[in-house]
From TrEMBL:
PROSITE patterns: ARGE_DAPE_CPG2_1
Residue ranges annotated for the Aspartate/glutamate/uridylate kinase domain, each copy included: 16-249
GO molecular function annotations of the record: ATP binding; cobalt ion binding; hydrolase activity, acting on carbon-nitrogen (but not peptide) bonds, in linear amides; kinase activity; zinc ion binding
Top-level taxon of origin: Bacteria
Keywords for the protein's UniProt record, in alphabetical order: Amino-acid biosynthesis, ATP-binding, Cobalt, Cytoplasm, Hydrolase, Kinase, Lysine biosynthesis, Metal-binding, Nucleotide-binding, Transferase, Zinc
UniProt KW Ubl conjugation keyword: no
Pfam families per record: AA_kinase, Peptidase_M20
GO biological process, one term: lysine biosynthetic process
Protein name (Swiss-Prot/TrEMBL): M20/M25/M40 family metallo-hydrolase
Length: 622
């Protein structure tokens, strides 16, 4: 099995942190959804709510659940004598329920209260003034705390070993005292922040946050930072507090329900409200984490948006978002991609400049495509389709499926060209995995050659041979790895070649196989270079759009590659260009940002160009 994959990275599979309220633990559907997420490859950290389990356990042992009134609400009173009983309730009632439900679904499950091995630690809260048994007093022995530390390494190791890890309060006292109770929703939020989770779901018995708690149909779909508490009552206050804590991290955050994980019927929380209404979809699309192989949440969100705007939209069998208007014979395809490279930071606006992973590469382009589609009056002779492809940054799986299933007469690829330029060509791409195994020998021996030695030698020969054959080709080793494995040392490397348009990519494939004969060669991707003539009707449509916007057309031929290359591998004589807002120099960098003026201008140019192409086809169609 490959260690490096397509791109050398320490990034693990997407992490969901899911808090399931105690009432929701009685609903089988939520466990089906958890199993479904695991089947998609996600890592899963559950936090179990305990109110119902504690009540059941206390009833079984004939003990009264003690409470106190604090801040206008009733909370569980936890003096030191109660902590062992609370732990027992989780260990004997709540966690066995989770373990049994998920084990029945074929999952390996680890469950524990979070004090175990100090997986989570907290500092005790100061004394509080509260009402106990009808009397106001200063309570000094209430064992509740504020999370201060998570053993991230240990939790990550558990996530590597088990399909699902489920934790529950209480947590360890960082100063060595009796364990401390913490709110389970807040615990989930703190875990999400500490572990750099992709998604946080707080599952409850209502359809998220309700404008009117007495009306189950009054759900609030969207809440920005600071808005939620105005609608929260009772236990919902702690869920909103947890959501606000999580907004300081990078996960996308939602309170979901009743008793389901999907945010579509709950409340999404947004950390970066757009400064203007026409930037809202852009901001929200960037906030939803969609690192390669974890595009589903964003795809589902955009399907809902399309449906609300009268666009037929669906998710196809490989996970692509497919949005279509019109059914005529003249077909234009706008192909963007849902995924981003790894690494995120909290999305934010600085005035009208958006900062966040993917805003340039290439969610800005995809949003411009969708908004153009929503506003277009598509004539009867045309079909306009927008696809958000999966895995563009790795395997091009989404684009390969598009190539084989969604034919078109013109293609616009969603990649940053800048609002005032059009990309008409790309270098091709050849990506190969090289593998080698050599007998282990003592390196003090004369003439010993390790797997790493042989790999370095082959890589050097490849560079020289490709440079001789195609001097303009650009080469990079994306990753190299070698380890001892018993009597053999095994090594692999991922080698990337950017192929000029004048060099047939199949020639380089043959060359790599020839030079790499001493090692294993696996071709991961081999797509040709592509160049669309400036005289093509699609390019001319953009030229007219640029001039209408007061811009002199600029045309780019990039040395990178895109999904255009994947389509060009089999689509002959189909004009293709790439267009989208943003500076491509910011792709894959921590400085990724997109200005609203740039985005708006690109949207205007795109709408004019697509409309121009469609109208021109009507005039020229027999």
């Amino acid at each position: 099995m490959s260690v490096l994959g397509h791109v050398a990275s320490t990034r693990k599979a997407a992490l969901y942190v899911i808090k399931i309220g105690s009432a929701s633990l009685d609903h089988e559907e939520v466990f089906d959804e958890v199993a479904g997420l695991r089947a998609r490859g996600a890592r899963l950290l559950l936090v179990a709510g305990g109110a119902a389990g504690i009540a059941r356990h206390y009833a079984d042992i004939g003990r009264l659940v003690r409470t106190m009134r604090l801040g206008g609400g009733e909370v569980r009173y936890c003096p030191p004598a109660e902590i062992p009983h609370i732990v027992a309730a989780y260990e004997q009632v709540t966690l066995p329920r989770v373990r049994h439900a998920l084990s029945e679904r074929g999952l390996r499950v680890f469950t524990a209260v979070a004090q175990t091995g100090a997986l989570v630690s907290a500092l005790a809260n100061p004394p509080v003034r509260a009402e106990i048994d009808g009397r106001m007093c200063v309570v000094r022995d209430h064992r509740a705390g504020t999370v201060c530390a998570v053993d991230v390494d240990c939790v990550n190791q558990l996530l590597e070993v088990f399909d699902v890890v489920c934790l529950a309060p209480p947590v360890s006292d960082a100063t060595g005292g009796t364990a401390l109770n913490v709110d389970a929703d807040v615990l989930a939020a703190e875990l999400a922040n500490a572990l750099d989770a992709d998604h946080l779901r707080l599952v409850t018995g209502t359809a998220g946050l309700l404008a009117d708690p007495a009306d189950p149909a009054s759900g609030i779909q969207h809440a920005i930072r600071g808005e939620g508490q105005a609608y929260a009552r009772g236990r919902m206050r702690q869920k909103v507090r947890a959501a606000e804590i999580a907004l300081t991290g990078t996960a996308d955050v939602a309170i979901t329900g009743p008793h389901i994980l999907s945010p579509a019927s709950g409340t999404r929380f947004w950390r970066a409200p757009a400064p203007a209404g026409d930037l809202s979809l852009l901001a929200r699309t960037v906030e939803i984490s969609s690192v390669s192989y974890d595009e589903r949440e964003l795809a589902e969100f955009l399907v809902d948006w399309c449906t609300e705007h009268g666009i037929h939209a669906e998710i196809d069998e490989v996970g692509n978002l497919v949005a279509t208007r019109g059914s005529g014979p003249e077909r234009v395809l706008m192909l963007g991609h849902l995924d981003t490279v790894a690494h995120r930071w909290p999305v934010h606006w600085n005035g009208e400049t958006l900062s966040g992973r993917g805003c340039v590469d290439a969610k800005g382009s995809l949003v411009a495509f969708l908004e153009t589609l929503a506003e277009m009056d598509v004539p009867s002779h045309a079909q306009v389709r927008v696809i958000g492809a999966v895995e563009e940054e790795n395997t091009a799986r989404g684009a390969c499926f598009v190539r084989d299933h969604y034919p078109a007469d013109a293609v616009i690829i969603g990649e940053p060209s800048g609002a005032e330029a059009l990309t008409i060509g790309y270098y091709g791409l050849l990506k190969v995995r090289l593998s080698v195994a050599e007998p282990v020998g003592h390196t003090a021996g004369q003439g010993v050659v390790t797997a790493a030695d042989r790999m370095v030698h082959v890589l050097s020969r490849l560079r020289d041979a490709i440079a001789d054959t195609s001097p303009k080709a650009m080469m990079a080793v994306l990753g190299i790895h070698a380890v001892n494995a018993g009597h053999l040392q095994q090594g692999e490397a991922v080698f990337d070649v950017r192929v000029p348009q004048e060099t047939p990519v199949e020639n380089l494939v043959a060359l790599v196989r020839q030079v790499g004969e001493a090692v294993g060669v696996e071709v991961l991707r081999a797509t040709p270079g592509v160049l669309t003539p400036r005289t093509n009707a699609l390019v001319k449509a953009f030229s007219r759009a640029f001039r209408e916007a007061g811009t002199t057309p600029r045309f780019l031929a990039k040395k990178g590659s895109s999904d255009m290359n994947t389509l060009a591998a089999t689509w002959q004589d189909v004009p293709m260009v790439a267009y989208g807002p943003g500076d491509a120099a910011l792709d894959h960098t921590p400085g990724e940002r997109l200005d609203a003026t740039e985005f708006r201008k690109a949207r205007a140019v795109l709408a004019t160009a697509v409309t121009s192409w469609v109208n021109e086809r009507e005039r020229t169609t027999p």
